[in-house]
Amino acid sequence: MAGTVPASAAPEDVSEGLGQFLGGDAAGLNLDAIVELQGAYAENPSGTNPVSANPLSAELLNSVGVDLGGSLQLLGPNGILQLGTVNQFGEATDEGDARAAAGAVSDQGAISVGGSGGFPANADLNLTPLLTGTEAESILSALSLNLGAVSSSAEQIDGGAATTDYDVAGATLNFSSPLVGAIYGDLQTTVEELQTDVAGLSESISGGLASVELGGVATLDSEVTVVPPDLSEVLPAEVIGTSSGVTVDLTSGAVTVDLAALLAANPELPDLNNLGPNSPLLSAGVTAAIADGITQAVTDAVSPVVANLENAIQAASVDVDVTIDALLIGEIAVTLDATVQELLAGEATAVFADDQEGLVEELVSALGLGSPDDLLNSIVNAVTGSLGSAVDGVIDAEDTLDEITGSLAAEVVGPVLTLVNELVAVTVNVQPATGDLGGASTTVRALQIGVLPAAPLATVNLASSTVRGTDVPAIGPSIGVQPSEVEQGSSTTVTGEGFAPEESVTVSIPGVDGGDPVAVETTTNAEGEFEVDLPVPGDYPTGDVQVTAEGAQSQTPATAGLVVLAPGEDGDDDDDDADEAEVDPSLGVEPDSAAPGDEVTIEGDDFVPGSTVDIVITDEDGDVIGTIEDVQVDEDGEFSQDWTVPEGTDPGDLTIIAEDDEGNSAEAILVIVDGTGPDGDDGPDGDNGADGDNGAGGDDDGALDPGVSIDPDAAEPSETVTIEGDDFTPGGTVIIEIVDEGGNTVGTIDDVQVGDDGSFVVDWTLPADLSPGQLVVTATDDAGNAGSGILDVLDRDGAGGVRDGDGDATPAGAGDGSDRSGGLAATGATVATFGVIALVLTLLGAGLYMVSRHRRLAEGE
To answer: Of the candidates 586, 504, 451, which has an alpha carbon nearest to the alpha carbon of residue 68?
Structure first.
């Protein structure tokens, strides 16, 4: 069913698609307004949608009367334009997408390339009636344009730029010209003239022989027989030439130009279906190509005719019998038998009759010639000379061809094509600045034909497709009412979201006893939201009622429940509110610090029972480093989810946020430490630590077992201690690093020399600002072997570590039953704890040493 094209779209329309095969104007008549020619128009939501299709039969198209004046019709029996059956398609969707097509297209708007049986969509334009009885007939006697399947399509999706396409299955320009036909007349005249010249060759040769000089001692008589060809048989009844899509019939003067083939054969011209917007079909480049094609076709047609004429003349036989009557000598006979070609090529010879040698010698002597051949050559030369003067111009094919085709471009092709362009102008891939559906629309036409374009008699649009699309957000309307229980005579506030932006919305409750609904009108904002008060009449029945909101554009109703109460009646809102469990979610992570590669457990509490949560983990810069979706919350509002810290995560705080389906959220902090912590790969308990598989106490012990001691093993800030080491790589150096209980480096000593026995000694002064506690002193040699020792930092009054129950200072980590003597902690947790710390710092020291060493090497130290 076809939609009617309005002057302008309805304001609420989000999409329009119009496929119209025939339009334009003719003799002042607007073809677009003819009802029988209406296209397929879809408009959403105000008209036919989402799809409109309107095929037009050939009978219908060609029955529409459009008078062009002077008994001419545009269409119909006496029309200059004949059309085949076509299809028209328009689509306009709720989402704002628009599509259109016209011509040889399917019911889904797809172009059938090359046409289809059901919709050939061809067009034949016959302009010969415009030539009849005019002076132009001396140049053009007939003119027509045959078009194969003509189609176009356009679409605009998701509010993006419109895309267009067109297809013309073929275009053939046909014309007949007396100027072209005159070329055949020129050929006939040439043949007749040649026939006369050939018929007179015998007389010409005889005359030439009479001029042979015999010195008065002899006379010459000749009998010449030339058998002339019938040159009329050489000229065919039809002379047709072809070149690059151009066919020329010189017999009738008819010229056929297959424009698709012509364009395809010319690499400098685009193909018929690859022309740019608003391209003239008969552009200057195309016209020049047609002119070249016609000239070449005529040349190709005439060339073999001229060549055949030349061959026929050259094949003619020339028989010459000469009698020389020599005074006092006697008669001498000479014969010459050859073709015209042999004579002109110098290949002919004359001979004396047999048994005349004596007579010939006497004659040659009497004539004063050197030999008998001189006499024979004079006879041959006389024949050839007279023959050449008669046929030289005839047998020169190139000169003959030039006479026929030399003025072809200027005197024939030029005037013909100039007149064609004055009669018809064809534009391909027409894309007007303003679409047929207004400024926001896009139109493409496969073809536009202008008849007498200088003062248009008709401008005919073929296969026009127009679209106007928009980007319509996905419609998912919902509403809420607050309060959900109201007394008769009061009102409730209805809020809505997910509607189309700025659309009119009707909010209503059913009418009483089948009467009109109780309704209010409102308009959504740019986000598709609204808020409106809905009154409940005082006599409205109590009980449950459904509130409905429907947008004029989205046309998708949304509903919500409402309870109407009698005045003073208690509702269930309070109980409902009490029944609704409030949630106060919280989130934790165990452990709350971890290294890359470690696994932690994220636990949530007091989220919405039975919902799912999405977990997002971000670093200190706000970059997301991990997400976990759809974690199930149990009936108690709790969940537990394991997560592994990605390798390469930088130390620092990670923020973990969990949010349930209703938007309730909580967050927790996970501290990321590097891999040198107690449990890291490089820590004391890791694979590379002192107690790990690769450490000093592991399965892969090395040959060396370095050790470090400090004397004294307890000192106050600013005091100096002696650091001693043994069993390091002999002759090498060590780097010493001193680290406090927080892992902070408080001192380093570079390039301490190791003796040949693997030992070293170095003094170190404690920084003045050190706090009481314990330090781990780690030495690492060139080979990465490391050892550690413990140094207690005391208060200025000699106390360090923690206070015991009496307020006396004891080394950190020492408690009841522990003692300190010599240089090392004796027993208990302190030894274990700082053994671990020592191993950690031993490995740290080894790493720092290697880094320092590499840096020095890189700097050239």
So the answer is: 451
Residue 404 — very low, low, confident or very high, per pLDDT cuts 50/70/90?
Answer: low
- 312, 286 in Cβ contact below 8 A? no
For residue 288, give every residue at least 6 positions away whose Cβ sits within 8 Å of its Cβ, in sequence order, or none: none
pTM of the model: 0.55
Are the beta carbons of 690 and 838 closer than 8 angstroms?
Answer: yes
Helix ranges restricted to H, 13-147: 58-61
> Tell me, what amino acid is at 180?
V
The DSSP H or E segment spanning 558 is: strand 558-565
Long-range contacts of 798-802 (CB under 8 A, 24+ apart): 798/716, 799/772, 800/714, 800/772, 800/773, 801/772, 801/773, 801/774
Q: Is the alpha carbon torsion for 105, 450, 443, 282 positive or negative?
A: positive
Rounded distance between C-alpha atoms, residue 228 and residue 223, angstroms: 16
**Cis omega (within 30 of 0) on the bond before 712?**
yes
Could you give the residue ranges of the DSSP H alpha helices within 282-371?
Answer: 284-314, 340-344, 357-367
| 640-643 own/partner pairs: CB under 8 Å, 24+ apart | 640/601, 640/602, 640/603, 640/604, 641/601, 641/602, 641/603, 641/615, 642/599, 642/600, 642/601, 642/602, 643/599, 643/600, 643/601, 643/602, 643/615, 643/617
Q: At what angle do helices 372-395 and 201-209 cross, to 10 degrees?
A: 150
Token pair 């534009």 is at which residue?
427
Q: How far apart are CA 605 and CA 591, in angstroms?
A: 17
Q: From CA 768, how far away is CA 718, in angstroms rounded?
A: 5
Contact present, 540 and 464 (Cβ < 8 Å) = no
Residue 699's pLDDT is: 45
Query: What gap in Å lies between CA 226 and CA 201, rounded to an integer?
Result: 7
How many other CB atoms sit within 10 Å of the CB of residue 169?
Answer: 21
For 149-200, what is each residue's pLDDT tens digit? 999 999 999 999 999 999 999 999 999 999 888 888 888 888 888 888 888 8
User: How many other C-beta atoms are found inside a 10 Å radius of the C-beta of residue 424?
Assistant: 21
Answer whether 479's CB lies under 8 Å from 495's CB: yes
Among 13, 164, 35, CA closest to 101:
164
What single-letter DSSP state applies at residue 210?
T
Q: How many CB atoms lie within 10 A of CB 716?
A: 18
Residue with tokens 């094209």: 5
